[in-house]
Write a structure and sequence with these properties.
Number of helices of chain B: 10
Structural class of chain B: mainly alpha
Largest sheet of chain A: 6 strands, mixed
Distance between the termini of chain B: 38 Å
Largest sheet of chain B: none
Structural class of chain A: alpha/beta
CATH class of the largest domain in chain A: Alpha Beta
Number of domains of chain A: 2
Low-confidence stretches of chain A: none
Helix content of chain B: over 70%
CATH topology of the largest domain in chain A: Rossmann fold
CATH architecture of the largest domain in chain A: 3-Layer(aba) Sandwich
Mean pLDDT of chain B: 91
Helix content of chain A: 25-40%
Order of helices and strands of chain A: EEEHEEHHHEHEHEEHEHEEHEH
Oligomer: heterodimer
Radius of gyration of chain B: 20 Å
Largest interface: A-B, 45 and 37 residues
Chain lengths: 302, 260
């Protein structure tokens, strides 16, 4: 059996006396997209940089494609997109990508890749004069040009406009379809829900939950609306079928969970009418990863 | 916008080592020749010093033609500006911008990167030598002795000088922040330009400090080049001083260098 793309067991990383990573265990399957989701400072970048061989762990074991992260043999097989920088400011966009391509035996065509990422008009533009989003896209291009087996993308869509973000998502989809293993970090739950086969939610250097987006958010739907803060929910709960739940979180935002059907909707609106309030922005939706994170940690994701 | 189809199917592999090194060396050379401040240091200042002090009777070279005295000194200065000052500053900023770290994630090994930097420094030095020799000859410079001995002697001295100055430059870039490296490298350049026999003969300095000044790598290089290009035999003392600086600085640089 082949080893997973990434296998981390009990990883510990300390900076001074604080543990940035505190016993983290996760596994990223080959050929799948694994999203490491968490707020800033959760330990995402430290974890990825240890896998990339940039930092050394203080404890635990890490295997990348079955090898220790610092192995020279991994360098051609693994593509890396750092969170920022890594390119000389005066280097021209096209030159940099051509340079990285020349380190590889069977690279993609730099011109085609630049065109694919909408950078064709900036081939001769120095890196420092590219916009933040263009710099990100060049960095993404450099990560995949060598046709790696595994790519690490550290916050690949940070600072991208919606259009570029979708282009990036599309590219990740193509990598997956071609059999490339992808490990990406993000604090955008929509990104993780949309791209990932497997989501690992981390907070304070530990895994707090993991699974497919569907498994994490659950199948059940919920009803949400906004109204005057401080409504008494007991009456509503009494009227709802057993097994339902209702809560106000945050203030003025109400969530009703349970068997969301026309009967439940009617009960809720009738209760609103009795309370003399108009439910604003009433909608039925699934739980988001944001909700899951909030429930697990009591903190907002961003 | 056209969307060419790209085959992302994994096909990893490192390029042959020489191709990686040449590609990186090419990028380093382009970077050096494109940087205005670096060109000022490596080309414009040496040429201006050579022309200015050769034409205007500002210095007393103790008999003989001024250009015969200045040409070897300015060649030594050119080596120092590229191998030491330029390399220290460029490497300091590469670390600051995360370039060294990013390159560390490519198949190019660290030894490959160091080799590429050396190739690039030697290539830029070759351009400097061609330009400075042409300017000096047009100013009436007449090197003495057998051309073969002169070329071989100069090549050995320049290689040793390049090793010594590269070691010092990388040592400085490895220890200091990028901005501090920028300031310190320029200061050291100026001090060594003034006190290393480049344009001001060491004979003009007080007797008490001369033995110390003669141990500077720049003095060994200027003195050695001057002797060889004046028709003399390769001076063992200069070779020994440069070799000692090269060994000490490269060992220290290798021990202290931080990649990020």
């Amino acid at each position: 059996m082949t080893s997973p793309a990434v296998e981390i067991v009990d990883l510990v990383k300390r900076y001074g006396s604080t543990a940035a990573i505190d016993g983290l265990t996760l596994s990223a399957a080959r050929g799948a997209v694994t999203a490491v989701l968490g707020p800033n400072g959760a330990g995402k970048t430290s974890t990825v940089e240890i896998c990339e061989g940039f930092r050394t762990a203080d404890g635990g074991t890490v295997r990348v494609l079955g090898l220790p992260p610092a192995s020279a043999a991994l360098r051609p097989r693994v593509g890396v997109m750092p969170q920022s920088g890594g390119v000389p400011p005066a280097a021209r966009c096209g030159e940099w990508l051509r340079l990285v391509s020349r380190f590889h035996a069977r690279p993609l065509d730099p011109g085609a890749l630049l065109s694919r990422l909408g950078l064709s008009d900036h081939v001769r533009t120095p890196f420092r004069r590219l916009s933040g989003g263009q710099q990100q896209r060049l960095s993404l291009a450099a990560a995949v040009i060598g046709r790696p087996e595994l790519v690490f993308l550290d916050e690949p869509t940070a600072g991208l406009d919606p259009q570029a973000r979708h282009a990036c998502w599309e590219l990740v989809g193509e990598l997956r379809a071609a059999g490339v293993s992808v490990v990406l970090t993000t604090h955008h739950m929509d990104e993780a829900e949309r791209l990932a086969d497997h989501v690992v939610i981390i907070d304070r250097g530990r895994v707090v939950a993991e699974g497919s987006p569907a498994a994490l958010t659950g199948a059940e739907r919920q009803l949400r609306f906004r109204a005057r803060p401080g409504l008494a929910l007991e009456e509503l709960l009494n009227a709802l079928p057993i097994g339902s739940a209702a809560k106000e979180s945050p203030s003025g935002h109400y969530i009703v969970e349970g068997q969301v059907d026309p009967g439940l909707l009617a009960t809720v609106t009738a209760w609103c009418a009795a309370e003399g309030v108009t439910a604003d922005d009433l909608r039925i939706e699934r739980r988001t990863l944001e909700d899951v994170f909030l429930e697990l940690t009591g903190r907002e994701l961003r | 916008m056209t969307t060419p189809t790209l085959d992302f199917t994994p096909a990893p592999g490192a390029a042959p080592f020489p191709r990686m090194v040449l590609a990186q060396a090419g990028a380093e050379i382009r970077g050096m020749l494109r940087n205005g401040e670096q060109l000022l240091l490596t080309m414009i200042i040496p040429v201006l010093l050579l022309v200015g002090f050769s034409v205007a009777p500002l210095i007393d070279v103790g008999g003989g033609s001024r250009v015969d005295f200045l040409a070897p000194g300015v060649l030594a200065l050119a080596v120092m500006s590229t191998a030491f000052t330029g390399q220290a500053i460029a490497t300091g900023f590469e670390r600051r911008y995360g370039v060294l770290k990013r390159l560390g994630a490519t198949p190019l090994s660290r030894s490959g990167l160091m080799l590429a930097k050396t190739v690039a420094v030697l290539a830029v030095e070759a351009v400097q030598v061609v330009v400075l020799v042409a300017v000096a000859l047009s100013l009436g410079w007449s090197p003495q002795g057998s051309p073969v001995a002169a070329v071989l002697g100069c090549a050995l001295l320049v290689l040793l000088g390049t090793a010594a100055f590269s070691g010092l430059g990388l040592l400085m870039a490895g220890l200091l922040r990028a901005e501090a490296t920028l300031a310190a490298a320029n200061l050291v350049y100026l001090l060594l330009l003034a006190a290393g026999g480049v344009v001001f003969p060491l004979a003009k300095f007080p007797e008490s400090v001369r033995p110390v000044l003669e141990l500077l790598p720049i003095s060994a290089l200027t003195g050695g080049l001057r002797t060889v290009l004046g028709g003399g035999a390769l001076p063992v003392a200069a070779v020994a001083v440069l070799a000692a600086w090269a060994v000490v600085s490269l060992v220290l640089a290798a021990r202290t260098f931080r990649w990020e």
